[in-house]
Amino acid sequence: MNSKEIHLLDNKIRSSFKRLKQNEAELITLLQEMDQLMGYKLLGYASLWEYAVKALQMTEGQASAYITVSRKALEVRALDAALKSGELSVSKAKRVTALIHPGNAKEWIEKAKNLTQNELDRERWRFASNDHLDSEMRARAQVSGGQLYRITLAVSADFLNFLDEAQELMEIGSREIALEKVLADYLDKHDPVRRAERAARKRGIQDSGNELSMEVPAKRRAEPNSNISNSTFLRNEDDKSTHERESSSNSAKGSDTRRFKKAKSNIPRRIINQVHLRDRGRCQYRLPSGQLCQSRRGIHVHHLVPRIAGGKNEPENLLTLCASHHRLHHFLDELRLEADVVSLEGDLPSSDTVV
User: Fold this and answer.
1) Alpha-carbon distance 330 to 321, whole Å?
2) Helix %, strand %, coil % for the chain, to 5?
3) Residue that wins the pLDDT comparison between 337 and 323
4) Most Cβ neighbours (<10 Å): which of 15, 145, 345, 351?
């Protein structure tokens, strides 16, 4: 499949998704009408939910979402308008149906439209009443700006035992505080940015110092004659076990996207720390939309100019990439070497998108 066919496929997918949003809005309208007329009873179904599951073959989750949202939209006209204009999806609307009413509709619709799922959940979980909290939790709430969140977790008996043991060792009366301290200790030990900050403090390095460059590297490409299939796959040393598992799994699959050899990183720790401080431990791959990935999962340290092509272990030649975009970068480089450069050079995403 050539580049022209890929672009054609992309256009088809975009059109299909646009139709999906239009069909979703139409389905909401039709379900509202069926619900108001109770037409499902004439069709032999006891409820709209039974009709959706049995007649329309929706999953139980889909039926719950569509019915809940369609009924709430009748109560909140602003929500109804946002759904039918395609501004808001049913899945996003479902997350705020328990909270939205005509008085706060504008606020929650904007949040549902603009926030990520995790951010929206945090807004839903936030609560103002601290009456049930002990004095220590109230004090910590004031330090953190007074924002507290109520979450529900399904945990095992072992989890509770571990939490109780930690609470006892810390001599803390609150499970919430004990869990917070455990998580804070874990992040201090394993988060690459916090480790880098701690190392910088120990060495007395200031962010504005000469040794620490906070500028993201300028755009650079790998040398045209570099052998990408043998290029180095560098990683954050904090993710050693994950990387090694991926390496063995990928070699077993024989995937064309991961044929390049993996090499143990010999980047000095102080250089890795500088990169983590500059990139804040987040992937710097630039998406076609212009946004940065910013993921913190499976972080690797990538050579803009491969070591095999003379690239150096310097911050200016290093960039933070998540595992997925690191593989994508090398995959695209392999395509450029293997494909007809004349016909594809202008169509393939540029490797400059990593910066």
Assistant:
1) 12
2) 60, 5, 35
3) 323
4) 351
